[in-house]
Amino acid sequence: AIPFGITAALIRILTVVVIAGALYLMYRQPKNIALMLKLILAVIIVITAFSQYRSPQYIVWFTPFAALLVAEDIWGILVFIGVQVLAYIEYPLGYGVLYVNDKYVSGWGLVFFTVFFLTIGLLMWRALKMEGPYVKSDDGVIPGVKAPKKSRGRR
Question: Is the pTM of this model over 0.85?
């Protein structure tokens, strides 16, 4: 088994690498709004997932970014709603059931949180693979989204 200290250090290093990478990419492409929203979402999810403490309200931190990024995708919207429902089940419905001694997770809690975190991962995947949110710049161009090719149809 890997000692807890090594695991904690690796998680902190991974978190710093994700934040530094996101800042670098935002610096390199400052006008790409879609990329910026995706990177903010990724950073917030990494920080909340790898935090030493877990709190049900952390989902509120990334909800607006995820909502913007999956607005064009029906499957993304369904996953988004699933995450919201699971968050509601965690608190207030399951708060006394899923935790033991306010520190450890019960057997059902382990199953629940496995499904919950997999669903958050699926939401992150759906959001990050999208072409871009409904955000337009002043010139009407959606940053980060390639313009559709003009077809040369018959006249």
Answer: no
